[in-house]
Amino acid sequence: MEVEYIPGLKGVPAAKTEICMIDTDAGEVWIRGYSLKELAVKAPYEEIAYLLLYGRLPRRKELDEFSKLMRDERPIPESVKKIILGLPDNASTMDMLRTGLSAVASYDPELEDNSVEANRRKAVRIISKMGTLIGVIAGKLAGRQPLEPDPKLSHAENILYMITDDDHDEFSRKTFKTIFSLYVEHGLAASTFTARVIASTLSDIYGAIVGAIAALKGPLHGRAMEKALEMILPLRDEEEAERKVLELLARKERVMGFGHRIYKTGVDPRAKMLKEVLREFCDRIGDDRLYRISVRMEEVMMREKGLYPNVDFYAGQLYHLLGIPTELFTPLFAASRSTGWSAHVVEQQADNVLFRPKGVYVGKRGLGYKPIEERELGVETVP
Question: Which of 9, 107, 150, 154 is the most buried (most CB within 10 A)?
Answer without folding.
Answer: 154
